[in-house]
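Bench log, entry 3. Co-assembly request; chain sequences pasted below exactly as received.
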Amino acid sequence: MIKRPNEIATIVSAQAAQARAAILQMTTLAGSGHPGGSMSSLDLLLCLYNTIDHDPQNPDKPDRDRIVISHGHISPAVYSSLALNGYFTIEEAISQYRIYGTRFEGHVERDLPGIEWSTGNLGQGLSAGAGFAIANRIKGIDSYTYVMMGDGEQQKGQISEARRFAAKYKLNKLIAIIDYNQLQICGTIHEVMPQNMRKNWESDGWQVLEVSGHDIMQILKTLDTARKADQPTLILAHTVMGRGVSFMENKAQYHGAPLKREQCEAALAELGQPSELDKYAALREAVRQNPPQLELPDFAPKYELKAGKAILYTSASDCRSGWGNAISDLAKINKGSANPIVVVDCDLSGSVKTADFAHNNPEHFLQVGIMEHHAAVMGGAISTTGIQCFWADFGVFGIDEVYNMQRLNLINKANLKTIITHVGIDVGADGKTHQCVDYISLVRNIFGYRVICPADANQTDRIIRWLIDKPGNYLVAMGRSKLPIIQGGKGEIFFDENYVFEYGKADTLREGKKATVFVCGTPLGRVLSAVDELAAEGYTMQVINVSCPLEIEADLVAKAAKRGTIFTVEDHSIQGGLGTTIAEAIVSGGYKAKLVKIGVDTFPRSAESEELYMAYGMDSQSLKKRFREG
Ligand SMILES: Cc1ncc(C[n+]2csc(CCOP(=O)(O)OP(=O)(O)O)c2C)c(N)n1
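Structure output for the full assembly:
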């Protein structure tokens, strides 16, 4: 039954008193947390959770309205609001907040029902919200997405990226709300970094509504106005940090400091709420002794997408075209699928080969401009909705520029497929700012992230087709140049129509006795030229292509160690790339072998890529010489 605004207001007011008591008790008992912003955001949150279309019994229902909490530090307010709206009990929230093994983490986490996106690194929530909003539109779902933000948080540049995206795509079902309490950690937002919030949002194309963030009836009315808008709306909500407790109000110190026990008792008395500190202290101790056995959701979507037929390349081609042609073909054969294929581009469609996809699938192509931070987070959010989302960019922008956004995608159990081109010194004359030589080492740091480096256009085609129904986050890294078609020992196309890519499986291209070379991606053709010349001279080497450089099968290394010197060759830094994977495998397997790592050992320079390969000892003649030297 639909409730009237005054009925909702009565419920919200009653919940607000209880929730404020919960916020104070959980932060005091934890001895940490963020009560100030929690108290100022609370009335807004309760108005949202009491009016949106959601179902605590079925929190993942696909057509739900979503609330993204961008300032994840206000978790005490969010946990209290979710509890009072049926997601779990308020006892659970207070007795588990910030305790190891529970889902009530310091900052909001997607593992907890009702939380749409894990945040805490400020400035990313609006991008996630825009991702959910555009995903809804693509999937024909008529729901709202709300994004709660801090006012200090507005200093982050990524928010302006997300604003522009929302305005460009007319995301009128996206509603942002700023908790305008005018305080942040180091003082007032005006002292720390002045800005004109209203004008910023308006000039980017948003409707801005101002409201008192503690006047329930006004908030409810303003939300209704925002829901009817034909453009994205910001609600600038004037609030009071620490609202409800006289000695906390308007004090920046309570941004991130809990009350002492006696202060908490006094605050609870002022709120007219009973103190249950003793009860909860005991419950928290019990949780600590016996943490709940949680089965965390894995969220992995099941994609019903066909991989189609391989495209066979018979003459030198760039991997970029291999990717671009494959994704166009995949979109064509999967048209109308329950799992749309979306491609995100950052003003590089000609170079990263998304132009054909864009031309044929305009409704599934998102041109984001030079806004990579937004693209990474938005793509991550989209990829949690059953859409198979690919983001194509240069290496330096798709991973180096947005390392933390990618890290948060992994934390959020997203499924973003990032296709990076122009990696390594293969970029050539653009110089060191554009030569991404850490795409493996960065991914290595992020738990669960996977990197794949194709060696030619044929292997690229098979990798993209293999990926099409895979959940999880992958980085596919390729260079810029045309590469020779990789051939097996008999001159046959190695990655032919029958080649099946398997993540983590290396390919042996040449058998040999004297030494072993493990190669990753782009340099494979050069390595094979060198090795074939050496073989003609009677010096044979085993050549193993490792397209997944974070994985290596132990027996390949064991056998290589017996054979003699082990070489690694990669268009990547010799720190943290394939050489590191092999070094670790040698040591942890207890093998004894000399390892020679060939790759980049400093920021490279501007030159044609051939010249650079010579400079770094990766042209076929230099390789031949080094292999011979052992
Ligand atoms: C990217 C990033 N930089 C810095 C921080 C550290 N930090 C956490 S909260 C905060 C201040 C946020 O102020 P505001 O958005 O006004 O939140 P409120 O003080 O109202 O709770 C800062 C700097 C962070 N979490 N993320």
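The CA atoms of residues 514 and 541 lie 5 Å apart. DSSP finds 24 helices and 20 strands in the chain.
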